[in-house]
Write a structure and sequence with these properties.
This protein is of the alpha/beta class and 347 residues long. The protein is built from 11 helices and 17 strands. α4 crosses α5 and α4 packs across α10. GO terms for molecular function: alcohol dehydrogenase (NADP+) activity; zinc ion binding.
Length: 347
């Protein structure tokens, strides 16, 4: 076992603290990664605070991880020492169910193994990327292209793939009108990616405070949802709406913005239920859907797409001792647009 420095939540109500955690010995198919940067995702906060259910503490979170391969198992074929690599939201799956066999292991019918807070193959609870090292099965390790700035790459492993996957699945591209609800960590990536795909992009945000940013990131239009006239002006307009906010919204109001056969896809994950009137769906044959991260293959596709189109998240680099303050700023929407932890500050 390898003992490594980490930041962990002692409970659902206490601040995260410096500690150490154990990493398993390298198996024949495993890769040891020295972590360089780890992104802070709103999911980390929901998890450690028990919003999505009870956890086993202490818990080290973080599922936006980039670093360098420092050792490989005897049967590893796809990665070498020194490679720039990444790890996202999952580190294993059953490999046997129909979804896994279809290359959609994020929807593993037995439940994929999350990067943190899941039962690992050895019965231990997985611990995430707020740490100096991680051991991961090579099949769940991704190649990070050289022309993606490494200090900004980590959020692509969650925010990037979480927005890329529905945009690709619902065919965002030339001739399609795409709306993005919320311009935060997820939303700003949705804008960049949808724009690069060739769609006409509109941001729907509570206020116009981030309008200049939205237009700079690639939006063609920007509207304030606090203005009731927005919903009248944009009724029956969009082919696809990506809702990135992790809070309850008036789904019926947003569904009314969909054109014929349009789809509203939720990628934000509020802990509360989202009410909906089914009659809203009848108009324009609208659809309401959800999308969870992406497969390993699609995540690599996303990384290559971002490298090709010069896409990287907008990030603010912090030290490990700033994590608790960063959590409060995330909750106050005071970040543009993703915190990234410099893991050298944990060594």
């Amino acid at each position: 076992m390898l003992t490594v420095n980490a930041y962990a939540a002692p409970s659902a109500t206490e601040p995260l603290i410096r500690t150490t955690i154990q990493r398993r010995d390298l198996g024949p198919k495993d890769v040891l990664i020295e972590i360089a940067y780890a992104g802070i995702c709103h999911s980390d906060i929901h998890t450690v605070r028990g919003d999505w259910g009870p956890q086993q503490y202490p818990l080290t979170v973080g599922h936006e991880i980039v670093g360098f391969v420092t050792e490989v198992g005897s049967e590893v074929a796809g990665h070498e020492v020194g490679d720039r690599v990444g790890v996202g939201c999952m580190v294993n799956s059953c490999r046997e169910c129909v979804n896994c066999l279809a290359g959609q292991e994020q929807y593993c019918l037995k439940g994929n193994t999350g990067t943190y807070g899941s039962v690992d193959r050895d019965g231990t609870i997985t611990q995430g990327g707020y740490s100096t090292h991680v051991v991961v099965d090579e099949d769940f390790v991704l190649r990070v292209p050289e022309n993606i700035p490494f200090e900004a790459a980590a959020p692509l492993l969650c925010a990037g793939i979480t927005t890329y996957s529905p945009l690709a699945h619902w065919n965002a591209g030339p001739g399609k009108k795409v709306a993005v609800v919320g311009l935060g960590g997820l939303g700003h990536m949705a804008v960049k990616i949808a724009h690069a795909m060739g769609a006409e992009v509109t941001v729907l945000s509570q206020t116009l405070s981030k309008k200049d940013d939205g237009l700079r990131l690639g939006a063609d239009h920007y509207f304030a949802t606090s203005d009731p006239a927005t919903f009248e002006q944009l009724a029956n307009n969009f082919d696809l709406i990506i809702n990135t906010v992790s809070a309850v919204i008036d789904l019926d109001a947003y569904l009314s913005l969909l054109a014929l056969d349009g789809t509203l896809v939720n990628v934000g994950a509020p802990p509360e239920a989202l009410p909906i009137h089914v009659f809203t769906l009848f108009g324009n044959r609208r659809s309401f859907a959800g999308s969870g991260i992406g497969s390993i293959g699609e995540t690599q596709e996303m990384l290559d797409f971002c490298a090709e189109h010069g896409i990287a998240p907008e990030t603010e680099l912090i030290g490990a001792d700033d994590i608790n303050a960063a959590y409060e700023r995330v909750l106050a929407s005071d970040v543009r647009y993703r915190f990234v932890i410099d893991i050298t500050t944990l060594r």
